[in-house]
Amino acid sequence: MAGSYNHIVTDDGNLISNEEFPNMIENLGDAYEAIEEMYGMIWWLANLPAAAREKPRVRVEMARLHYDIGLKLAKQTSKGRKMRV
Question: Is the pLDDT reported for residue 36 higher than 70?
Answer without folding.
Answer: yes
